[in-house]
Design goal:
Antioxidant protein with alkyl hydroperoxidase activity. Required for the reduction of the AhpC active site cysteine residues and for the regeneration of the AhpC enzyme activity. Its EC number is 1.11.1.28. InterPro entries: AhpD, AhpD-like, AhpD_core, CMD-like. The protein is mostly helical and 176 residues long. The protein is 76% helix and 0% strand. α1 packs antiparallel against α4. It is globular, with a radius of gyration of 16 Å. It starts with a helix and ends with a helix. The mean pLDDT is 95.
Length: 176
C-alpha cells in the first residue's frame, strides 16, 4: 500500500507524522469518498509529487475516476481562488466590490460529485493554502450540508498531516 510507502520513507524524527498518517488512513468519521478525496486534494495541495503519487495509488482503490478528478479539480481551483480571495482581503475595502473575473465553473458543478464532498475538499485545500475567507466560507457550507465539527476537523487533520509528511519527504529527498 502506498500510504505504507510514505510511512516507511519518513525518518525517525518524523515518527509522529507516520503514526498520524496510519491512523487517519485506517479509520474515519467521513464517508470513504470524503476521506480519500480529502487525501487526494490535500496531497495535490502540498505540491509534493512523491506524496501525490503515493496517495493516488491507494486512493484509486477507494474512489471512482470522477471523484479523483473532482478532488484534483478542487485542489486546482482553490489554488487560484485562495490567492485571489486572500489578496483581495489583504488589500482591504477598496477591492471588496471588484468583480473576481475568474472562471470557477467546477465549483457550481461540484466536479460531478456531491456538493458536500467537493466543498470539503475545497476547505481542506484552503486550509493548506491559508485563506481565511475561503476556509470559513467552505466550512459554513459543509456544516450546512450536515457535516459535524468532528468530520470537518478530521479533514483538517488529514490536511495537516499530509502537509507535514510532504515537508519531511522533501527534506529527505534533498539531504538524504
Amino acid at each position: 500500500m502506498s500510504i505504507d510507502n510514505l510511512r516507511s520513507a519518513l525518518p525517525a524524527w518524523a515518527k509522529d507524522l507516520s503514526l498520524n498518517l496510519s491512523t487517519l488512513s485506517r479509520s474515519s468519521t467521513l464517508t470513504e469518498q470524503q476521506q480519500w478525496g480529502t487525501f487526494v486534494a490535500a496531497a495535490a495541495a502540498t505540491r509534493n509529487e512523491s506524496v501525490l503519487v503515493q496517495v493516488l495509488e491507494d486512493a484509486r482503490a477507494h474512489l471512482s475516476e470522477e471523484a479523483i478528478s473532482a478532488a484534483l479539480g478542487a485542489a486546482s481551483i482553490m489554488a487560484m481562488n485562495n490567492i485571489a480571495y486572500r489578496t483581495r482581503h489583504f488589500l482591504g475595502d477598496a477591492y471588496e466590490n471588484e468583480r473576481m473575473g475568474l472562471r470557477m465553473n467546477i465549483i457550481g458543478s461540484s466536479g460531478g460529485v456531491e456538493k458536500v464532498d467537493f466543498e470539503l475538499w475545497s476547505l481542506v485545500v484552503s486550509t493548506i493554502n491559508g485563506c481565511e475567507r475561503c476556509i470559513t466560507s467552505h466550512e459554513a457550507t459543509v456544516r450546512g450540508e450536515g457535516l459535524s465539527t468532528e468530520q470537518v476537523w478530521e479533514a483538517v487533520r488529514i490536511a495537516s498531516t499530509l502537509t507535514g509528511v510532504a515537508q519531511a519527504v522533501a527534506v529527505v529527498e534533498t539531504i538524504g
